[in-house]
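2024-03-11 09:14:02 INFO worker-7 job=invfold-0412 stage=load source=structure_tokens
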């Protein structure tokens, strides 16, 4: 780890007025600094800032400095969010990691984290070894010839499914951005991962009120049962009445360069019967536009099965 200056601003205004890299729980930033992937000159410890609170009176509002464990255990948080958080990392990390930090975490692509390897996200123009190399864990959706790294956050997938937005604050004031617009697909500039402007930080996450969010779940498929990132995941909220799907929200993780909203699957579900056959037919739309690499083609059918599993979990066997 290289030398750096540590500051601890006590107001949001002071934090965004000075250049520096923000530190909350540190569960991602410190790792990357140790690996020399990141080498900020100034690190701002923002844990004194008043960016806390969990409000479930109308939808959900969560301060960016709330810890993952506390949000997961809050009784008013929709099941899809709680489950996504509980399936993330370990209990020790969930006790430390912040909500804002989770949404800002960097990819776990091994090429990105290995400074001996080229990586367009780390060093623009250096290349993407994943395109022709080992790519089993990489994305099949939202990729480009310059990057195929998957987005790592489980929480972000659940929030994208529920139409969440982030409230950002910076030197030029406050603004709200839908989470689906916040993350950037790599295209020709994979180093630009999000819509956060210079000096801005996430202050709050807002999830609009959705009556059927209580009937929601998060299914995560991975190589081992704990402390592992997703091969595929599905965040699903489902409104069912009289055996038919009234409305649905579906998003996927582990398969795309950003949290991937599956609107085609939602459209296929709406108005149809809540049956296994209908779920399977809708899930066939999940990998529309996929571009598998040499070693990750299995993710397309696995994603379909992951979505069906989540839908069946929410209908408690009534679709059989």
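2024-03-11 09:14:09 INFO worker-7 stage=emit residues=320
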């Amino acid at each position: 780890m290289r030398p750096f200056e540590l500051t601890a601003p006590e107001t949001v205004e002071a934090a965004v007025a000075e250049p520096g890299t923000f530190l909350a729980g540190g569960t991602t930033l410190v790792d990357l600094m140790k690996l020399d992937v990141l080498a900020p000159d100034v690190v701002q410890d923002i844990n004194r800032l008043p960016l806390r609170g969990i409000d479930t009176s109308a939808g959900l509002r969560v301060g960016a400095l709330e810890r993952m464990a506390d949000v997961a255990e809050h009784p008013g948080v929709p099941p899809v969010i709680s489950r996504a958080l509980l399936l993330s990392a370990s209990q020790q990390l969930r006790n430390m990691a912040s909500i804002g930090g989770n949404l800002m975490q960097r990819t776990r692509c091994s090429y990105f984290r290995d400074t001996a390897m080229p990586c367009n996200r780390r060093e623009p123009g250096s290349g993407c070894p994943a395109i022709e190399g080992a790519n089993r864990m990489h994305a099949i959706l939202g990729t480009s010839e310059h990057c195929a790294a998957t987005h790592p956050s489980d929480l972000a997938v659940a929030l994208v499914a529920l139409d969440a937005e982030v409230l950002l604050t910076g030197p030029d004031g406050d603004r709200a951005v839908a989470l689906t617009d916040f993350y950037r697909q790599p295209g020709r500039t994979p180093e630009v991962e999000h819509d956060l402007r210079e000096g801005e930080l996430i202050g709050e996450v807002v999830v609009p009120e959705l009556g059927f969010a209580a009937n929601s779940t998060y299914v995560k498929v991975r190589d081992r049962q704990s402390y592992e990132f997703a091969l595929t995941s599905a965040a699903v909220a489902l409104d069912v009445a009289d055996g038919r799907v009234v409305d649905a929200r579906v998003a996927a993780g582990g398969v795309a360069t950003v949290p991937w909203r599956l609107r085609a699957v939602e459209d296929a579900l709406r108005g149809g019967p809540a049956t296994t056959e209908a779920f399977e037919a809708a899930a066939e739309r999940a990998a529309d536009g996929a571009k598998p690499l040499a070693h990750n083609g299995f993710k397309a059918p696995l994603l379909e099965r992951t979505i069906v599993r989540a839908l069946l979990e929410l209908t408690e066997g009534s679709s059989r």
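2024-03-11 09:14:09 INFO worker-7 stage=report msg="The chain has twelve helices and twelve strands."
2024-03-11 09:14:10 INFO worker-7 job finished
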